[in-house]
Amino acid sequence: MVGQSNMAGRGYLNDVQQIYDEKIKVLVNGRWQTMTEPINFDRPTSGIGLAASFAGAWRLKNDQEEIGLIPCADGGTSLDDWAVGGALFESAVLQAKLALKISKLSGILWHQGENDSFGGLSALYHDKLSIIVDAFRSQLDAPDIPFIAGGLGDFLSGGRYGKYFTEYNEVNYALQKFAETKPNCYFVTANGLTANGDGLHFDAVSQRRFGIRYFESLLEKKNILAPLAGEDELIEIIQNRPLTKKEQGTLLEIDFARGKISLGDLEKKLNLLNDQSSN
Amino acid sequence: MVGQSNMAGRGYLNDVQQIYDEKIKVLVNGRWQTMTEPINFDRPTSGIGLAASFAGAWRLKNDQEEIGLIPCADGGTSLDDWAVGGALFESAVLQAKLALKISKLSGILWHQGENDSFGGLSALYHDKLSIIVDAFRSQLDAPDIPFIAGGLGDFLSGGRYGKYFTEYNEVNYALQKFAETKPNCYFVTANGLTANGDGLHFDAVSQRRFGIRYFESLLEKKNILAPLAGEDELIEIIQNRPLTKKEQGTLLEIDFARGKISLGDLEKKLNLLNDQSSN
């Protein structure tokens, strides 16, 4: 997970049902932990991103396997901030290398461009991104690794910062062109996706849809140029996956550890859960 | 910030007033961002830790300077999990090295030991910790860097997992012994500190007090073997530091980005803030 705020995720947590699945992991301090949302806690405003439904869709096709997410996105960052050798690039490579010690790298998810949508920067987008992607692939020894880049939202020009984003169409064009010319790189449209009140960040439901598209792109190794049929049905299936007893128990423990339920309530509920398992 | 859950922080966020100060930073993706709580987001249960009031106390003595925190603590981890060359150790060293590119390293804050308080592990605590501290100092090229280790809570034996923590007194003794024998290592007592309902994690108020003690230990380069006079008064001062207009504006932007206030309300409040500044 690399890019800026819309890869980190700013959808409101309360707007969608959380995705929780013991086989969806996130890298924390070099080790895999079960994913909870928000995944990519780069700022206090971090919320729902596209990676959770992406992973959920992957799980529907890989029933017995685990998937791990490596959160490296950072809000408000430009391509120059992501330049090879800079802190963000170095940090992401280090994280990926820690993961590589225990896992296999399967893809790079990218969403970035709002901060290169003005002042003539869009004209440089394709070439700057190309250098970064080449360096990621080279430093991770993964020359063919799929690179999936999502488009910028059509709402940008009308939002709170709309006057700044004069070149977001050009960035979208550069991303699409990049995917057409660079091997194993794919473009995923943001068509039809909507924003929070800021007109800048994809809302939670849109992030869920975006994740489905990212997964379809990775699965089919192709660009996704229009919304997919059945996105919302798939999201429902992912969000409503029946939890195992162990997962239900863990979620109760989390509620307790957050002070949301008392120790007495926790024990009562855990007992209830155990009683069910003996039936 | 290294150790297990009580260094990461599990105090309930709503139990204390948040500490927000543009001059207190946290390392995110290799770059400094303004700290917000929770600082060390290792688990969904992450909350108030000791580092915020530690940094706040530091700021009272360093009015014009910035302090940065590097969150590397990881819940439920034992000394063996922290062994040199393991994922946690490697990850912490990499984070510190990213920070060293732009900053100076001033101290290592350690809290760990609950997971070495049984099965005879306490007898190995001193020597295992010594190897880890030597390796941190060597790999970070900081042979004299202060290492501050806090004690385990007296509540452990009475809590939900009390029967497991049969050797927490021995771990406390090992930590104190370690501080007495190892150069520039200091011990900070947890005397008088209290826990969440789990009898395992320091509550938010206790974490605030603990942070004050950690800072006093660093400042005076000495062990803190009893609660300090005026801890709560100092916490009040830190938590009630008057916010600058810029900080107030940023907090409003965060509320808006989280969906807590509308765009209209945000703009109204920002205008009000700006009007104040012209008076």
From TrEMBL, chains A, B:
It holds the Pfam family SASA. The keyword Hydrolase applies. GO terms for molecular function: hydrolase activity, acting on ester bonds. Keywords: Hydrolase. Residues 1-219 form the Sialate O-acetylesterase domain. SUPFAM superfamilies: SGNH hydrolase. PANTHER family: 9-O-ACETYL-N-ACETYLNEURAMINIC ACID DEACETYLASE-RELATED (PTHR31988:SF19), ESTERASE, PUTATIVE (DUF303)-RELATED (PTHR31988). This is Sialate O-acetylesterase domain-containing protein. It comes from Pedobacter caeni. The lineage of its organism: Bacteria, Pseudomonadati, Bacteroidota, Sphingobacteriia, Sphingobacteriales.
